[in-house]
Amino acid sequence: MRALLFSDKLAFSEMMASLLRDGFDIDILAFPDHAADLTGYGAKEIKGMEKEDYAADSLADFIAGMSKDYDYIFIGATVLGREAATMLSALTGNVMKSEITKIEISGGKARTSRLYYGGKTVLEEESDAKIFTVSQGLVEPSRTAASSKTTKVVNQKTSKITVGEKIEKPSTSVDITKASVIVSIGRGIGKKEGIEKIKELATLLHGELAGSRPICSDYHWLEVERQVGLSGKTVSPKIYMAIGISGQIQHVAGMRNSKTVIAINNDKTAPIFQECDYGIVGDLYSVVPLLINAIKQTGQS
């Protein structure tokens, strides 16, 4: 089975290739700056675009022209990817399934899994879908020994969208999706001043600081780029430390693929303890200083 992969985010393409290469013969459609970096991820061919195209309609039209050579199309679930995939489905008449987390092809049918009802459950479906958007952070990207053939492709499709004004969002150097260690805080922290102590712990662990929706979107104590959850980023670090986070499903949906989860909460009935590998019931303002001192002593020994 042949499959074409595309994402406007390099890390997303790496993840999808690592996830799908064992079940499909994959090619990757890539932005020009990404093509060289993707040659070691198991694709037969990297189709490097001559220029980046952020117009969803012309991108969808371009992929539609290529789709006859493939059995399935997988697109990363970014803002651009979601829009282009929907247009691609309309152009080709093929069924699309969005935000999948797993896929298996059997008897010509696609069996997929995806989060449903705001992440409260997993929906398993069987369909004739040929187009899929893929959720982020499903596996850790890994290279293969073989290199891919690289060709250049030109998108001659013209967009019907006219940009009236472009307002640049303030840039940030934070990308918590790439962090191997994340220390995340919730409303249980109680006060903004407490963040400095948690930040010290994150620094000692060589990790990134993150937060739940209340911390990032409601209180604005941290940047929204640091928000983990259904309405934020999906992460899969080696270690995820949840401090003062109750563990509602909207948050858990964004971190359930973490390798090891450590929770600190003074409520022993908090849902986060059903999701963690190690749990500490206690006041975070007592527990965190003890952890910091222990780490410092270990580093000095």
Verbal overview:
With 301 residues, the chain is of the alpha/beta class. The chain folds into 2 domains: 2-153, 3-Layer(aba) Sandwich (Rossmann fold), CATH 3.40.50; 176-300, Rossmann fold (3-Layer(aba) Sandwich). It is built from 7 helices and 14 strands. The strands form 2 sheets. It has a 9-stranded mixed β-sheet with strand order 7-6-5-8-4-1-2-3-9. It has a 5-stranded parallel β-sheet with strand order 11-10-12-13-14. Helix 1 links the parallel strand 1 and strand 2. Helix 2 (56-66) crosses helix 3 and helix 4 packs parallel to helix 7 (284-300). The mean pLDDT is 92.
In short:
It contains seven helices and 14 strands. With 301 residues, it is an alpha/beta fold.
Could you name the key traits of this structure?
alpha/beta, 301 residues, 7 helices, Rossmann fold, 2 domains, elongated, 24% helix
Tell me the CATH topology of the largest domain.
Answer: Rossmann fold
Helix content: 10-25%
Poorly predicted spans: none
Q: What does the radius of gyration come to? A: 21 Å
CATH-derived architecture of the largest domain = 3-Layer(aba) Sandwich
Order of helices and strands: EHEEHEHEEEEEEHEHEHEEH
CATH H-level name of the largest domain... which superfamily?
A: HUPs
Question: What is the total tally of β strands?
Answer: 14
Major beta sheet, strand line-up: 7-6-5-8-4-1-2-3-9
- Give me the number of helical elements: 7
Percentage beta strand = 25-35%
* Nearest-integer average pLDDT: 92
